[in-house]
Amino acid sequence: MVQKYQSPVRVYKYPFELVMAIAGVEYVFFIQKNTVNWKERTLLIEAHNETFANRVVVLETCSYSVHPENEEWTCFEQSASLDIKSFFGFENTVEKIAMKQYTANIKRGKEVIEHYLKELISQGITFIPRWTPPPVSRQKEKRALAVGDNPGIVPAESCMHGTTKEQPGSSCPAAETASPDADKLDADYIERYLGQLTPMQESCLIRLRQWLQEMHKGKIPKDEHILRFLRARDFNIDKAREMLCQSLTWRKQYQVDYILQTWRPPSLLEEYYTGGWHYQDKDGRPLYILRLGQMDTKGLVKALGEESLLRHVLSINEEGQKRCEENTNLFGRPITSWTCLVDLEGLNMRHLWRPGVKALLRIIEVVEDNYPETLGRLLIVRAPRVFPVLWTLVSPFINENTRQKFLIYSGNNYQGPGGLVDYLDKDVIPDFLGGECMCNVPEGGLVPKSLYQTDEEPENSDHIRLWTETIYHSANVLKGAPHEIVVEILEGESVITWDFDILKGDVVFCLFHSKRAPETSRKEATSSSALTAGDNMQLIDKSWVLGVDYSRMESPLVCREGESIQGSHVTRWPGFYVLQWKMHSSLPCSGTSLPRVDDVLVSLQVSSHKCKLMYYFEVLASKDFRGSMSSLESCNSGFSQLSAATTSSNQSQSSSLISR
């Protein structure tokens, strides 16, 4: 594999003639071709090796030219390629070592030139007059034009086994001017806006940028955006190019470039999403604060849907890049990433709701693929005991380079030396963390269940559709026609987990087991929606006898309208398990002749025709269950001070958690 190098444009803030005085263009001691054009003030050096040419091919091109915006400055560019044809099977390794050594000497080359320029100035040589053509008679001028002389070009071309020195006035074919193009990068620009890069990193940036200019004739990303992808792939050009091209396709497909102009978060999101921008850290990075412990992630997902949350997160990342550019101009140094401060006060088992965590993982995946190296530092404060469970679930999906930027503080360890004061100025630390700065980040709270989406209120059709997998299902429960789901268990000890919300009416939930496979029977089909399903499904045949054809594994659980239920069951036998929701009748079946007054009042308030619910279920192997966020046995979710009353119903082999 040929190793290549392309330098940025290096600028010497001295005239071309003064640089040429110490460049030694009139004496060449290795095989190369030099073409100096005194009239156009350019020098092109092309060199290649002859020794061991059958094993190693080295090509190098250097050019000096006048700066396009200041004729008293000189620009220098350099490119090289190294191809080892044969080296006992270690060609690729030797190429990399040789190129690394080559680039290590490149920056020292500029330092040497600068040193000798200062030496000339110390000796009183501060100006060398520009070349002017010698006066000639009209007859000589006509003769020169007739033979095609161009007195402004002075070449020096080497022979195969030596060098020659050409005197001024000799003629040769004119060379193209090597003045920098407007779209080229110079070293000063890189250092000012992109940061300190090694010569090889500079080369990778320039080569990838050139490739994008050639292949993508339209708009190409900004230099800092290209550099992020290179850093994410350790400056492997092929891997960075593949990642960047996939991201560019994604941005074009979903019009992400216009999200800051087109996206306006819903009022519900502005009220309950506990995140916002807050000044900057000590390094000048924009600071984003996320009060995750105070956020009702489950309520936001159910009320807005995953797509709205994703779009909001994308807008935050786009805004972050914009703020980095502004801070780069404001502080006079490159700012290419931001800092995120996450407050976990209030984090508990409610945040480990499995569909919510899955949605979080998908958002992380999208951000990791399309916004690499944008996070400079992540400060996590007030991490509770439940945090290791969440970290265990989320960390495998986070890039190793990103994980190394995490700083985690439990309790009050964030206060004092070694805490937030090391990274944030005291006048920036928010008030809820003991600082003096008022923070405008919303405090969040529980999203009212009345705002949860139903079949009649699907997500807006213009949302970004990135995920085809649907987490939720919806169902109607009819009078005399329960909704049932069958789960086939192949091994004895598996775990069935469920989570559902009662949107309308009261239902009774049961779990049954049968060795026979039930047959599908649809009672009614409703219009399709973004939440999938919505059909009423009855599986247990009316001819089946309880205790003979099937058996009850769960005691009936009455679920009232507006309740959220989470539960799990450890299976004892293989076979078919049926989750059943049926309409609850408030009137007693036996044991009393008159109904209770409370039951009558409830029956008058609830529709007698149809109940509605949204549900999610999953089957886990028993070995994967312990520590899972679906394991809610003996757990009372308090959701910090934001929680409403919570009750739980536990069985010997199962548990259900009810939130009102």
TrEMBL record:
InterPro entries registered for this protein in UniProt: CRAL-TRIO_dom, CRAL-TRIO_dom_sf, CRAL/TRIO_N_dom, CRAL/TRIO_N_dom_sf, GOLD_dom, GOLD_dom_sf, PRELI/MSF1_dom, SEC14/CRAL-TRIO_domain
Domain GOLD: 468-619
Domain CRAL-TRIO: 265-441
GO cellular component terms attached to this protein's record: cytoplasm
Region (Disordered): 160-180
PRELI/MSF1 domain sequence ranges: 1-125
Gene3D superfamilies linked to this entry: CRAL-TRIO lipid binding domain, GOLD domain
A family per Pfam: PRELI
Coiled coil: none
Official protein name in the record: SEC14 like lipid binding 5
Taxonomic source organism: Chrysemys picta bellii (Western painted turtle)
